Amino acid sequence: YNGLVESKKGRPTKEPRMKKSTNPLPLTESEREELIRLRTENEYIKAENEVIKKRIALRQGKWVAQLKAKKQQSSKNSEKKDIN
Question: Domain residues of the chain, as ranges?
Answer without folding.
Answer: 38-84
